[in-house]
Amino acid sequence: MQRLNIRTLTLITLMSILVAGASAEATQHCDNSDRSILFISDLHMGLGRLSDNGWNPLEDFRWPHALDKFLARISRDHHDRVTLVIVGDFLELWQHPSVPCAYSQATPCSVDQMTNVAELAVSAHNNEFRMLGNFANRGENHLSIIPGNHDAALMVPQVWQVLSTALGGREGRIDLVKSGLWTDCDGTVVSEHGHQIGADLNKYPDWPKVVLGDRRTMFSPWGEWFVETLFNSTEDKYPMIDNVIPQSNGLAYYEGDHGAIGSAAEVARFILLNIFETSIAQKRQVLGPSGRGHEGWNTSRGRSFGYRLFADSLPAASYLRQRMLAENDPHFDELRKAFDDLAKDQSRLSEEQVRSLCDLLAIRAAQSRDARIRSCNEPSMGLAVQELSFAGDDELIKARLEELMGSAAPNVRLYVFGHTHQMDNGTTLSVKGENVRFINDGAFQRLIDERTLDSLIVKHQRPDGLKMSRGEAMRLIPLSELPPCYSFVQVSYRAGNSPSAELHNWKMAETDAEGSIVAPDSPGCADLLKPR
C-alpha cells in the first residue's frame, strides 16, 4: 500500500473540514423556522418615465414609494431574516417599441437586443433596484428572482448581468433561479411563475431554455406576440387596459367603444383562455371539486351554436356577454365572426374544451333560468346540473404538481405561483398520495375588477353629465386612482407541521407616510380574490 505524504494528508484534512463545514451550513440553513419567506410577483418594471417626467403609457410599475416602505416593513417585522422571492415578471421585457424586434419569423429578437431592452428597464428603475439591493444586504435577508414569461430573457447570462449589476447585492445575497423552480431548503415549499402550467399560451417548450439553437435568437411564445401586437398599440391611450382583471374584460371594454382591436381571431383566442381561467373557477364553485365533467354532450350541436357557445358560457351580467349578444352592435361583428370560425375549427377548439363550454351552458341556464341559453343536447335528456362536476384549472395545477413531484420537487407540500395576476387562496390537492396546497400570490401591482371600476366611474362624470363607459374609463381615469393594494404571500413553519401560507395585501398610497398589511379582501382594495 502506497504511503501518503504529509502534503496529501494535509489536503485530505482540509477537504474534510470544508465538507463538514458545508454540511453544517446546509443543516443550519435548512432550519426554516428561523426566517420568514415572502413571495411577490408580476411587478412588470419597464420603460419608466418620459422626457417630460410623465409616465410612459406602457409602464405598469409606478409605485416606488410603496415598494420601499414594504421592504422596510417586512425586514423590520422579521428581524432582517427574510427571504423575498420574486415569482416572475419582475421586469417587463416584452414592451419595447424603440427596439425593432418582435414575435415574427422576419424580425425575431436577438440576445443582444434583449440585453438592450433590459438596459432600458434598469435605467428607468434604478432607484427601485437599489432599494431591493439594499434590502438584500440588510441583516441576513436574501433575494431570489425567478424569471417569468415577460422576463424570461433573464435566463441569458448577459441579460441577467445587467440586472444583477443594478441590484448591487453582496455576494450570496441575491440569486437568479436558473432552473425556473425555487425551493426552500428541504424542498417542501416550491415556487415558479406559472406559465408552464397546462397548455398556457405563454409556455416555453423547453423551459428553462429560452434561446433557439443558434444561441443568438430568443424564443418567443404566442403570448409575446399578443402583448406586442394588441396591448402595445392601445396602451398609449388606454393605459388601464391590462390592469383590468380578468384581462379579457379590458379588451371587451375597448372593443365596445372602437370595434376590433388588432386581429379579431387573436382576441377570440385570448378571451377563450380567460373563459377557462375565470368561468371554470365559478363552475367548480357551483358543482363542487369531485367527479368529472359530463362527457355525453353532443359536441357537434355545441359547435353549431357558433359565438353563442362562448357568449352563453359567461355569467348573465357579464359585459362581454351582453355586447356579444347585441347583434345590432357593429363593434362586435368581427369578434362574433371570429368565434363562429373558432367553434367550427377542431384544431383550435378541442372536443374536451367544447364539453367544458357545454357544462358551463347548463350551469348558466340553471342559474338564470334563461330559456334562451341552449343545451348541447336536446332538452328531453333531462340532465340535472347536480350531475355535473368539473375540477377545471385545479386539474391543470395537479398535473403540473405530478410532473414536478416526479422530477425536481418530490417533497413539495406547498406550491406558490403567480402569472394570472389574480389572487387565489387555493386548496389542498391529493398528488401522488400526498396532500399539497397551492396558492397564487396575485401581483404586486395596482389592478382593478369590474365592480371597483364601476365605482370609480360614478366619481368621474363626463362634462356633459352622462355616465362614461368602461372603455372611456380606461382612457380617462389615471392608474394612480386604482386601489393602492399590492398582494403577497407569507410562508411560516410550525414544528412538526407542513409549512402554511397566507395571502395579504400591502396597502399604501404613494402619498402615505407608511403602509399597512391587510387582508386580501380588505375594504379599499379591488375584489381580486378568485372565487372558491
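(ticket continues) Second input and output from the same batch:
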Amino acid sequence: MIPEATGRRRRSGLSLETRIFLVTSLLIALLVGGAVAVTSVLLRRIAREAAADSLKSSASVQSTYEKERYERLKLISGLFVSDPNLVAYISEAAQSRDAASLLDRLTDAQKELGFDFAILLDPAGKVIVRTDNPAAVGQDLSKRPLVARSLVDFEGSGVWREGKRLYYAVAVPVQQQFTLLGYLVTGFAISDASVREVNRVSGADVAVLASGDGGTEIAATTLPERTARSLMASLSSGERGMDRAMRDGRAVPQAELDLDGAPWLVQESPLLDAQGKPAGATLALASLDRELAAYRQIQNVLLATGLAAVLLAPFLSFAFARRALRPVRRLMTAAESARQGDYDQKIDSERTDEVGRLAHAFHELLADLREKRDMEVYVSDLSRNLPEPAQVRGLLGEAQSREVLLLGIELRQYSRAGTGEPRETLVRLAADLDRVTSAVTRGRGTIEAISGHRVLARFDGDGRAFRALSVAARVLDAAEGDGADGGGTEAPVAAMTAGKVITGPVTWGERAERALVGLPVQQIESLLREATPGELLLSREVHDELKEAFEQSGYRLAPRRGVITPQPLYVVSPVMVARLTQERLGPDSETLAASGRATLSGISPGALLGARFEILSVLGAGGMGIVYKARDRELDDLVALKMLKRDLWGDRTQLDRLKSELKLARKITHPNVLRTYDFGDIEGVPYISMEYVRGVTLRYMLDQTNRLPYSAGLRLAKQLCAGLGAAHAVGVLHRDIKPENLILEPTGNAKLMDFGIARPIDRLAPGQTQAGFIVGTPHYLPPEVLQGKDADPRSDLYSCGIVLYEIFTGVLPFEAPTAMDIMVKHLREEPPPPSTRWKEIPPALETAILRCLEKDPDRRYRSVAELLRDLETLSA
C-alpha cells in the first residue's frame, strides 16, 4: 500500500513542465524586479555623485570668482591712485576740505571703473568721502578689519560687511611722492547677479550668508524665495551644525538638508574678512531631485520594460518549457513503451546538449535491450532442440515388436542387506544405481527397468553389443576397484541376451508403466541366476553376434552348461572386454584400458573424488582432457572439472600448461569470462574446477542455424570483445579464440572459456611453446603464429575477426581439404569480403572484420578496446 500511495503522490504533483514554467516566470519576475531596484539605487548614487561634482565645481568657481574680484579691485584701485593729477587734486581737496568735489571725482571714477562703492580715508582711517554714504564724512573706520589691516600693512583685502550687504573689498594707499595722503577702499557687492554667474558656470545654486550680531541673513542667492526661507529655517534650527560652523569660520564639505520637502546636498565655504575672521559663508546647493530628473526617464523606461517582461514571462516561459521538454516527453513515452517490452523505437539523438546526450544514451540502451531480447529469443529457440541430458523411459508411444540387445546387471551385495542399517544401505544403493545408469547413458543405452538391485538396459543400433559389453565391464571393474569382493560383500554380476521383444505402455487400474516382454527378458533372469560374483555371461545369440570379433582378437570362448538353463553360457573376462572394446571403439574412448580399469582413472558419473567432487555427467572432451559436471560438496555448488587424460598424466609439460591455465585465468574477473576457481589433484589426477554454465556453445549455434541473426550476432560480438579485452587488460593472451570456446547462458550472456593454451603477453624469455610447434586451431590461426613468430594481442584480434566473420556470414573465410591447405591460405590469400556471403551486412561492420583479418598485425586494431568501440557504434 505504501508504494502505491507514494506513486499516487508523485503522479498528483506538478509536472516538470509546470514546474519549469512557474520557476522560470518567478525567476524572470525576480530578475526584472531586482534589476529595477538595483538600477534605482545606482541612479540615485549617480545623481548624488553628480550633485557632489556640481558642488565641487561650484566651490572651485566661487574660489576663482573671489580671486578674480580681488585682483580686479586691486587693478582698478591701483590705476585710480596712480594718476598724479588725481593725487594732486585729492591733496588740494583734502586740504581745502572740499568734500563735494572729491565725491564727484570719486563717483565719476566708480562709474568709469565699475566698482560698487569707494571710500577715501585720511591716514588715521577717518572718512574723507564715501560714495555709498556722502554724509559719513569724518566717520572713524580705523577699527574695521580691512582699514586696520591697511593701517599696518598699507594695503589689504577681504570681505567688507555693510549692514546686510557684503562686498569683496580692497584697500590701497594714496601717496604723493613719499607723503601718505590716505587710503582708497573699493569693493564689488556680493549680489544675486554675482552668484548667478557662479550658478551659470557650475550648475549649482548658491546662497551667500552674512553673519553678524543680529544673526545670520541671506546676502545673495539663486534659490527660489520659498526654498531660501526653508534654508534659513534649517540653519536657525542648528541642523547639521552649519550655522555654528559658519560662525566658527569652518568649512562643511558636504551635508544633506531637507529643503521645502526635497533633499539637497549643501557644501559650505567661509567668507573671511581682511583679518581672517568669519564675515559670512557661501553655500553651494545641489538638488538631488533635479539631478535625478535627468535619469528619471531611464528609470521609467526600465520600469516599463520590466513590467512588460513580467507580463510576457508566463507566456514565454510556457512556450520555452514546452519546447525544451518536447524531446524529454518523447523520451518519457519511449521509456514507458520500453517498460512494456517495445524496444523497436527510433530515438532522435542528433542534438549535442545534455538532452541529446540523454537521448543518445537511451538509444544505446534500447539497442542493448533489443540485442539482449533477440539473443534470448534465439537461445531459447535453440534450447528447445537441445538433447536431453539422459535418456529415460517414456510411457508414451504405441506397442511394437523390435529386435534389441538387453544387458542385465545385478548388484548382489544388496541381496543380503536385510540385516544392515536401512538409511545407510539405501544411500549406497542410490549411489551405485546412479553409477550404473550413468554408464548406460554414456554407452547410448536406455534404462528399461530397475527392480530393487537389478537394472535392465536396452541397446539399439550399430555397435550395440560392443557398447553394452563396455558398460558391463565398467560396472564390474568399478566394483572390483572398490573392493566389493574383498571386503566380505559379493561382487555384481552381468548378463547379455539378444532377440525380439514387445514394448509399449501397459495400464492397469490407475497405474501406467512401459512394459518390455519376451524371451530375452526371461533369458536375462536365468543368466543372472547362473552367474557367479564378478562374472559377465553372454547368451548364445550375443556370442554369435560377437564371435567373429573375439576370434579376430585371438579369443575362442568355450560354452559352459548352466545349472538352471539347458542353453550354453559364455563367460567373458575383463581383459578380453578391454582388448575387444579398445580395438573396436578406439583408444580415446572411455572404455576399459589394458589393465582392465576405465580410462581417466575410472572417473564416471556417480563417482566421488576426494570426498569432495561428486561426478554427475560428462560435459565434453578436448585435446588435453575431459570436462565433467560435478557437485562441489565443500562449496555446495555445481562446478565444471577439467581433468587430464590418462596418457598425459606423466607429461610434466602438460601439467605445467594446466597450472599456467589456472594462474592466468584466475586473474580475469569479468561477466563475459568463465570463472576459474581452483587447481589441485585427486589421487594423482590433476584437475581445474571452473564455473559451471548450462548453455550452448557458439559452435552449436552455428551448426544449427549457420549465420546468426544480426542483432544476436552483434551482441555476441560485443560480449566476445569485452571478455577478451578483460583478459588482455590483466596481461593474458587466449591464443585459441574459436566458437567452441564461447558458451552462452540461457539468458544470452556469453562467456569466453578454455585458457588451456594461454600464456602471458609479456614473457621474460621466449619459448613457452616449443620451436616448430604450433598451438591453436588451424581455421583461426593468425599468419604471424603460422610463421613461428611470437603472438601478441593483435593475434587474438585476428582469431576474433575469423569468429566474427563466421557469426555474420555463417561460413569460414578459408576452407580447404587439409589443415595444411587452410594454413597456407591464411598466409597467402586475402579473405573474401563478408558482403559476398551476406549482402545486407553493414559497411562499418564489414570494415571492422576485414581490419581484424589484415595479414600485417600493424594494420589491425591496436587493441580489442578499439574494435569494441567500433562495434558499439552499431546497433540492432
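Agent notes: Residues 16-81 form the longest helix (66 residues). Residues 48-291 form a domain with the Beta-Lactamase fold (CATH 3.30.450.20). Closing as not reproducible unless the customer responds.
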